[in-house]
Write a structure and sequence with these properties.
The chain is α/β, with parallel strands linked by helices and 257 residues long. Helix content is 38%, strand content 15%. It contains eight helices and seven strands, in the order E-H-E-H-E-H-E-H-H-E-H-E-H-H-E. Bound molecules: nicotinamide-adenine-dinucleotide (NAD).
Length: 257
Amino acid sequence: MTDRLAGRVCFVTGASSGIGRAIARRFASEGARVILADTVSDPLEGGPTTDSLITDAGGTCLSIPTDVSSWSAIDAAITQTIATFGRLDVMVNNAAVSDGYRLLDTTEESWDRVMSINLKGVYFGCKRAIQQMVKQDPLDGDEARGRIVNISSQHGMVCAPSDFSYGVSKAGVVYMTRQIAVDYAKDGIICNAVAPGKILTGRADGMVGLDYSQSRTPMDRLGRPEDVASAAVYLASAEASYITGHNLLMDGGWMAF
Ligand SMILES: NC(=O)c1ccc[n+]([C@@H]2O[C@H](COP(=O)([O-])OP(=O)(O)OC[C@H]3O[C@@H](n4cnc5c(N)ncnc54)[C@H](O)[C@@H]3O)[C@@H](O)[C@H]2O)c1
């Protein structure tokens, strides 16, 4: 690894498991100081915590228990981040849940839960991050004051079978990314998304629909969390200098098929 994120302070939601965990680990290995924001610390897939993996590898991280659906929790976590590290360079809005229901089975309670984490949580994360970013100077050698990386999905652009509220929430994340990119471009904010295809995360016995996902994926394997982390490093770094409002597919060709 290189030092593509050296000196940067990067906040990653849902950092305990899966894609968020891979992003946090990769960011730390690229020299970032990483804030791990999640409701739990144990990874869904098992194994050591993200915090211990980063620390054991010589990286720098700070765990802050955070529920992204709560403004007061996000506000407090980013306030603590700034108090600890002095600035916030990168906000990765990754935490999300799904309920697996079609429209007629979707209760108001379930819809509200998915939207409060997947959509309102991203709105809160973007808003609190940009409140800080517009006040700080760019780091040396950079033109941007801060970067947002939202984790969307190919779902929301194509149907998420039997996952109504999830698909709607992800379509909203793609739109939110464009709107923020346009509204804050002149303030030095770069805002992009990564749209994963099927990435192997979670407990091995909890993986369903893999045959369907492989049938939709031209490449001969499904995705790894590290595939998404590679895209996130680019969008978080100074190399992402003239790209904003983009939704970068990381899907083995799913959306080209
Ligand atoms: N895995 C895939 O195939 C896939 C495909 C497309 C998009 N995505 C997106 O990638 C992101 C990560 O997916 P994943 O598969 O790694 O998920 P995951 O379920 O493995 O991990 C999600 C993490 O988010 C945390 N989380 C849940 N609710 C939270 C809350 N309210 N506040 C803070 N943290 C919370 C969980 O504790 C968990 O650690 C999500 O946005 C998901 O929609 C995943």
